Amino acid sequence: MSETTTAAPQKQAWHVGRSEDIPEHGRMVVDAGDKTVGVFRVGGDLVAYENRCAHMGGPICQGLIVPRVYEQFDDAGRPVGNAFDESDMHIACPWHGYEYSLKTGRHAGKKSIGLRPVTVEETDEGEVYVHI
Ligand code: FES
Question: Which parts of the chain are beta strand (E)?
Fold first, then answer.
């Protein structure tokens, strides 16, 4: 019996920009190798995703960034209108409108659908890198 090991492919760091280039709810979309990646700041942290919508590959990272919309109800359970949740920012695909949580990358209505996350690093010196 022989033992087989498979080495994980080496990732390469790609410089994105400076920390101040990506303010809260801001973004940068950059080419990194053969991929295009969107980097976003949400709740002070950086998240990054490949710029390919899970629906049909649209440029999701270039979509509109909006707060989550939720329905409000009165004490009797009757709907009284919609409101925005500024603590849960979403991004909407410019092609057909699929909407994802920026923080998790998951589809707003169907959690089994999601964006492909990319490792992002912010150094103490204020430089931002993605690792592909
Ligand atoms: S490709 Fe994004 S919603 Fe269709």
Answer: 13-18, 27-32, 35-42, 45-50, 64-73, 79-92, 99-101, 119-122, 127-131
The ligand 1 atom at the shortest distance from the C-alpha of residue 57 is 1
Domain span holding position 117? 13-131
* CB of 104 closer than 8 Å to CB of 110: no
Q: Is-above-0.85 flag for pTM?
A: yes
Question: Which numbered atom of ligand 1 lies nearest the CA of 56?
Answer: 1
The answer to whether residue 4 is domain-embedded is no
Around ligand 1, the residues with Cβ closer than 6 Å are 53, 55-58, 60, 93, 95-98
Query: Is residue 19 a part of any domain in this protein?
Result: yes
Per-residue pLDDT of the chain (132 residues; tens, 9 = 90+): 556 667 777 889 999 999 999 999 999 999 999 999 999 999 999 999 999 999 999 999 999 999 999 999 999 999 999 999 989 999 999 999 999 999 999 999 999 999 999 999 999 999 999 999
Residue 58, domain CATH: 2.102.10.10
Mutate to test the pocket of ligand 1, among 56, 64, 113, 115 (most ligand atoms within 8 A of CB): 56
Domain assignment present for 6: no
